Amino acid sequence: MPRFFCDATLAPGAELALPPGAARHVQVLRLQPGDEITLFNGQGGQWTARVRRMGRSDVAVRVEAHEAIDREAAREVTLAIGMPANERMDWLVEKATELGVARIAPLHTQHGVLRLSGERAAKKQAHWRAIAQAACEQCGRNRVPTIEPVCDFAAFLHEAQGARVVLSLAEGGAPAPQTLGGDAPLTVLIGPEGGLSAAEDAQARTAGFAPTQLGARVLRAETAALAALTLALA
Protein backbone atom coordinates (compact mmCIF):
# COMPACT_ATOMS: atom_id res chain seq x y z
CA MET A 1 0.00 0.00 0.00
CA PRO A 2 1.43 3.46 -0.85
CA ARG A 3 2.80 5.32 2.17
CA PHE A 4 3.05 9.08 2.61
CA PHE A 5 4.46 11.38 5.26
CA CYS A 6 1.87 13.97 6.29
CA ASP A 7 2.90 16.67 8.75
CA ALA A 8 -0.59 17.19 10.15
CA THR A 9 -2.79 16.13 13.03
CA LEU A 10 -4.30 12.78 12.07
CA ALA A 11 -7.48 11.44 13.64
CA PRO A 12 -10.29 9.06 12.57
CA GLY A 13 -12.73 10.82 10.27
CA ALA A 14 -10.47 13.81 9.57
CA GLU A 15 -10.53 15.09 6.00
CA LEU A 16 -7.48 16.91 4.73
CA ALA A 17 -5.46 17.85 1.69
CA LEU A 18 -2.21 16.00 1.23
CA PRO A 19 1.03 18.01 1.17
CA PRO A 20 2.09 18.98 -2.36
CA GLY A 21 4.79 16.33 -2.63
CA ALA A 22 2.50 13.52 -1.49
CA ALA A 23 -0.29 14.79 -3.75
CA ARG A 24 2.02 14.68 -6.77
CA HIS A 25 3.06 11.15 -5.86
CA VAL A 26 -0.58 10.03 -5.60
CA GLN A 27 -1.22 11.47 -9.06
CA VAL A 28 1.87 9.81 -10.52
CA LEU A 29 0.65 6.48 -9.15
CA ARG A 30 -2.72 7.15 -10.81
CA LEU A 31 -4.65 6.43 -7.64
CA GLN A 32 -8.38 7.06 -7.76
CA PRO A 33 -11.09 8.08 -5.26
CA GLY A 34 -11.73 5.15 -2.96
CA ASP A 35 -8.18 3.84 -3.12
CA GLU A 36 -6.53 3.16 0.24
CA ILE A 37 -3.22 4.67 1.32
CA THR A 38 -1.15 4.81 4.51
CA LEU A 39 -0.26 8.07 6.25
CA PHE A 40 2.19 8.76 9.06
CA ASN A 41 3.16 12.02 10.74
CA GLY A 42 6.23 10.95 12.69
CA GLN A 43 4.43 10.86 16.04
CA GLY A 44 4.12 7.09 16.22
CA GLY A 45 2.15 4.49 14.34
CA GLN A 46 0.43 4.92 11.02
CA TRP A 47 -3.06 5.63 9.69
CA THR A 48 -5.14 4.11 6.95
CA ALA A 49 -6.82 6.67 4.73
CA ARG A 50 -8.82 6.79 1.49
CA VAL A 51 -8.57 9.13 -1.42
CA ARG A 52 -11.73 11.27 -1.53
CA ARG A 53 -11.05 13.65 -4.38
CA MET A 54 -8.43 14.13 -7.06
CA GLY A 55 -7.90 17.71 -8.23
CA ARG A 56 -5.54 18.97 -10.90
CA SER A 57 -2.87 19.73 -8.32
CA ASP A 58 -4.39 18.63 -5.01
CA VAL A 59 -5.60 15.42 -3.41
CA ALA A 60 -8.11 15.20 -0.57
CA VAL A 61 -8.20 12.16 1.73
CA ARG A 62 -10.24 10.91 4.64
CA VAL A 63 -8.36 9.41 7.60
CA GLU A 64 -9.70 6.10 8.91
CA ALA A 65 -8.04 3.92 11.56
CA HIS A 66 -4.80 4.19 13.50
CA GLU A 67 -2.40 1.25 13.48
CA ALA A 68 0.05 1.11 16.38
CA ILE A 69 2.96 -0.03 14.25
CA ASP A 70 6.51 1.18 14.78
CA ARG A 71 9.58 -0.26 13.13
CA GLU A 72 12.23 1.55 15.13
CA ALA A 73 15.57 0.07 16.09
CA ALA A 74 15.84 -1.22 19.63
CA ARG A 75 18.74 1.17 20.21
CA GLU A 76 18.96 4.94 19.80
CA VAL A 77 22.00 5.82 17.70
CA THR A 78 23.14 9.32 16.72
CA LEU A 79 25.37 9.82 13.70
CA ALA A 80 27.55 12.95 13.90
CA ILE A 81 29.26 13.49 10.56
CA GLY A 82 31.67 15.98 9.07
CA MET A 83 29.52 16.75 6.03
CA PRO A 84 30.70 15.06 2.81
CA ALA A 85 30.40 17.13 -0.34
CA ASN A 86 27.98 17.09 -3.27
CA GLU A 87 25.22 14.48 -3.22
CA ARG A 88 27.03 12.18 -0.80
CA MET A 89 25.41 13.77 2.23
CA ASP A 90 21.97 13.33 0.64
CA TRP A 91 22.74 9.67 -0.02
CA LEU A 92 24.03 9.20 3.52
CA VAL A 93 20.89 10.71 5.09
CA GLU A 94 18.72 8.39 3.01
CA LYS A 95 20.63 5.21 3.81
CA ALA A 96 21.17 6.03 7.49
CA THR A 97 17.43 6.55 7.81
CA GLU A 98 16.75 3.17 6.23
CA LEU A 99 19.18 1.52 8.66
CA GLY A 100 17.36 3.04 11.65
CA VAL A 101 19.45 5.99 12.85
CA ALA A 102 17.61 8.14 15.40
CA ARG A 103 19.48 11.43 14.89
CA ILE A 104 21.90 12.94 12.39
CA ALA A 105 24.14 15.85 13.38
CA PRO A 106 25.93 17.53 10.42
CA LEU A 107 29.23 19.10 11.47
CA HIS A 108 31.69 21.67 10.20
CA THR A 109 35.16 20.12 10.46
CA GLN A 110 38.65 21.19 9.38
CA HIS A 111 38.84 18.85 6.37
CA GLY A 112 35.23 19.37 5.30
CA VAL A 113 34.68 21.29 2.06
CA LEU A 114 30.97 21.96 2.59
CA ARG A 115 30.45 25.21 4.54
CA LEU A 116 26.92 26.25 5.44
CA SER A 117 25.54 29.11 7.47
CA GLY A 118 22.43 31.24 7.80
CA GLU A 119 19.65 30.73 5.27
CA ARG A 120 21.69 28.26 3.23
CA ALA A 121 22.20 26.03 6.26
CA ALA A 122 18.49 26.18 7.10
CA LYS A 123 17.56 25.23 3.53
CA LYS A 124 19.97 22.28 3.60
CA GLN A 125 18.53 21.11 6.91
CA ALA A 126 15.00 21.22 5.45
CA HIS A 127 16.25 19.41 2.34
CA TRP A 128 17.78 16.61 4.42
CA ARG A 129 14.60 16.34 6.48
CA ALA A 130 12.62 15.84 3.28
CA ILE A 131 15.06 13.11 2.21
CA ALA A 132 14.64 11.37 5.58
CA GLN A 133 10.85 11.60 5.30
CA ALA A 134 10.93 10.04 1.83
CA ALA A 135 13.24 7.30 3.08
CA CYS A 136 10.76 6.54 5.87
CA GLU A 137 7.97 6.28 3.30
CA GLN A 138 10.03 3.72 1.43
CA CYS A 139 11.39 1.61 4.30
CA GLY A 140 8.32 1.51 6.53
CA ARG A 141 9.50 3.64 9.44
CA ASN A 142 6.81 5.73 11.11
CA ARG A 143 9.17 7.99 13.05
CA VAL A 144 11.44 10.32 11.10
CA PRO A 145 15.00 10.71 12.44
CA THR A 146 15.93 14.12 13.77
CA ILE A 147 18.14 16.17 11.47
CA GLU A 148 19.98 18.66 13.66
CA PRO A 149 21.07 22.12 12.51
CA VAL A 150 24.60 22.31 11.12
CA CYS A 151 26.97 22.65 14.08
CA ASP A 152 30.63 23.51 14.62
CA PHE A 153 32.79 20.61 15.78
CA ALA A 154 33.82 22.11 19.14
CA ALA A 155 30.24 23.03 20.03
CA PHE A 156 29.09 19.51 19.27
CA LEU A 157 31.77 17.98 21.50
CA HIS A 158 30.70 20.28 24.33
CA GLU A 159 27.09 19.05 24.11
CA ALA A 160 27.69 15.33 23.50
CA GLN A 161 26.68 13.00 26.32
CA GLY A 162 26.39 9.29 26.99
CA ALA A 163 28.24 6.48 25.23
CA ARG A 164 30.20 7.73 22.22
CA VAL A 165 32.82 6.56 19.77
CA VAL A 166 34.93 8.29 17.13
CA LEU A 167 35.90 6.50 13.94
CA SER A 168 39.58 7.30 13.97
CA LEU A 169 42.34 7.10 11.37
CA ALA A 170 44.98 7.43 14.10
CA GLU A 171 46.73 4.58 15.86
CA GLY A 172 45.26 2.98 18.94
CA GLY A 173 41.62 2.53 18.03
CA ALA A 174 39.78 -0.58 19.19
CA PRO A 175 38.08 -2.84 16.62
CA ALA A 176 34.58 -1.57 15.86
CA PRO A 177 32.78 -4.79 16.88
CA GLN A 178 34.13 -4.28 20.40
CA THR A 179 33.05 -0.65 20.77
CA LEU A 180 29.84 -0.45 18.75
CA GLY A 181 27.94 -3.31 20.34
CA GLY A 182 25.45 -3.10 23.19
CA ASP A 183 21.99 -1.73 23.86
CA ALA A 184 22.70 1.70 25.37
CA PRO A 185 22.18 4.88 23.32
CA LEU A 186 25.29 5.66 21.30
CA THR A 187 26.80 8.57 19.38
CA VAL A 188 29.05 7.72 16.43
CA LEU A 189 31.36 10.54 15.29
CA ILE A 190 33.05 10.45 11.89
CA GLY A 191 34.95 12.96 9.81
CA PRO A 192 34.37 13.98 6.18
CA GLU A 193 36.54 13.06 3.19
CA GLY A 194 40.06 12.93 4.63
CA GLY A 195 38.77 12.17 8.12
CA LEU A 196 39.06 14.30 11.21
CA SER A 197 42.23 16.32 11.65
CA ALA A 198 44.74 15.14 14.24
CA ALA A 199 43.67 17.98 16.52
CA GLU A 200 39.97 17.11 16.16
CA ASP A 201 40.67 13.44 16.81
CA ALA A 202 42.54 14.37 19.99
CA GLN A 203 39.75 16.74 21.08
CA ALA A 204 37.17 14.00 20.60
CA ARG A 205 39.17 11.56 22.70
CA THR A 206 39.57 14.16 25.44
CA ALA A 207 35.80 14.70 25.35
CA GLY A 208 35.20 11.03 26.08
CA PHE A 209 34.86 9.52 22.60
CA ALA A 210 36.36 6.03 22.41
CA PRO A 211 38.66 5.69 19.35
CA THR A 212 37.40 3.02 16.98
CA GLN A 213 38.65 1.52 13.72
CA LEU A 214 36.72 -0.41 11.07
CA GLY A 215 39.68 -2.31 9.64
CA ALA A 216 42.81 -2.02 7.53
CA ARG A 217 41.15 -0.43 4.49
CA VAL A 218 40.41 3.28 4.21
CA LEU A 219 36.70 3.76 3.52
CA ARG A 220 34.87 6.76 2.15
CA ALA A 221 33.18 8.81 4.85
CA GLU A 222 29.69 7.69 3.87
CA THR A 223 30.74 4.04 3.57
CA ALA A 224 32.37 4.08 7.00
CA ALA A 225 29.32 5.75 8.54
CA LEU A 226 26.95 3.10 7.19
CA ALA A 227 29.28 0.26 8.21
CA ALA A 228 29.37 1.65 11.76
CA LEU A 229 25.60 2.06 11.88
CA THR A 230 25.12 -1.50 10.68
CA LEU A 231 27.27 -2.80 13.53
CA ALA A 232 25.68 -0.50 16.13
CA LEU A 233 22.10 -1.28 15.11
CA ALA A 234 22.50 -5.02 14.48
Can you describe this structure?
The protein is an alpha/beta fold. The protein has helices at residues 20-28, 88-99, 118-139, 153-159, 176-179, 198-206, 221-232; strands spanning 3-5, 15-17, 36-40, 46-54, 59-67, 77-82, 103-108, 146-147, 151-152, 163-167, 174-175, 186-190, 210-213. The chain folds into two domains: 3-67, Ribosomal Protein L25, Chain P; 77-232, 3-Layer(aba) Sandwich (Alpha/beta knot). The chain has seven helices and 13 strands. Strands 6, 7, 8, 9, 10, 11, 12 and 13 form an eight-stranded parallel β-sheet that branches. It is elongated and about 60 Å long.
Strand-helix topology:
Blueprint: E1 3-5, E2 15-17, H1 20-28, E3 36-40, E4 46-54, E5 59-67, E6 77-82, H2 88-99, E7 103-108, H3 118-139, E8 146-147, E9 151-152, H4 153-159, E10 163-167, E11 174-175, H5 176-179, E12 186-190, H6 198-206, E13 210-213, H7 221-232
Parallel strand pairs: 1-3, 6-7, 6-12, 7-8, 7-9, 10-12, 10-13, 11-13
Antiparallel strand pairs: 2-5, 3-4, 4-5
Helix pairs in contact: 2-3, 2-7
Average pLDDT, to the nearest integer? Answer: 94
Strand content: 25-35%
Shape: elongated
Helix content: 25-40%
CATH superfamily assignment of the largest domain? Answer: SPOUT methyltransferase, trefoil knot domain
Biggest sheet, open or closed, and with what strands and sense? 8 strands, parallel
For this structure, the CATH topology of the largest domain is: Alpha/beta knot
Given helix and strand content, the structural type is: alpha/beta
Return the domain count.
2
Number of helices: 7
Total number of strands: 13
